[in-house]
Design goal:
about 210 residues, three-stranded antiparallel beta sheet, 7 strands, flat
């Protein structure tokens, strides 16, 4: 273990909350349904320094927690371990670039991290944009800021960009709604505005 305060850590998170694809409640827009159960038990889906909370002996945590339980667990972990001066958490921002900088051979190599603030209504590139479109999009450097660090850890995870086959993209004239499973929360949302036509729900991610 390193002594307390040995590192000054900065976390950049694109969402307005921590947790990634794990929603902390039914209103969070994660990539999975908040009521979905994990496919691993609570004895596996946990950190070594925090067990699952057992609120009441008669009502223990479920063996297979729901997605919203995982989101709450992550929130509790942040509150317990990351709520200190050594950790700065920046939400609603996206890392545009991370590059090594070596100005002087006698000095330690630094990492330059360029971050863009995602203001209200600014969600960055569309998650359904093609790989070609994402590659062609050039970040606006006027809206970014640079940070310098000794070390960088990339925690991008997976399941970040939904995949919809090209055959189904831009089908504006079709009466059948086509959505990705990450946009589906419940039947009421699927049938809002009295849309009762059958639809297609896909689930692939990259």
């Amino acid at each position: 273990m390193y002594p307390k305060g040995a590192f000054k850590v900065t976390v950049f998170e694109q969402l307005s909350r921590l947790g990634g694809l794990w929603p902390s409640n039914s209103t969070d827009k994660g990539l999975i349904n908040s009521s979905m159960s994990t496919n691993l038990s609570k004895y596996t889906v946990c950190f070594s320094d925090k067990t699952w909370p057992e609120n009441e002996p008669s009502h223990p945590s479920p063996v297979f927690p729901k997605a919203s339980d995982v989101g709450q667990y992550l929130k509790q972990y942040v509150d317990k371990y990351l709520n200190n001066p050594s950790v700065e958490i920046k939400t609603s921002c996206r890392v545009e670039e991370a590059s090594m900088v070596e100005e002087d051979a006698s000095k330690q190599i630094k990492w330059r991290v360029r971050v863009r603030d995602l203001r209200a209504g600014d969600k960055g590139p569309s998650p359904l944009a093609s790989a070609e479109a994402l590659a062609d999009s050039s970040p606006n450097t006027a809206e970014t800021e640079e940070h310098f660090f000794d070390h960088v850890i990339i925690c991008s995870g997976f399941f970040g960009r939904p995949i919809i086959p090209k055959a189904f993209v831009h089908q504006e004239d079709t009466p059948i709604p086509i959505i990705h499973s990450s946009e589906f929360s419940n039947l009421k949302e699927l049938l809002k505005d009295n849309k009762r036509a059958p639809g297609k729900i896909g689930r692939a991610h990259v």
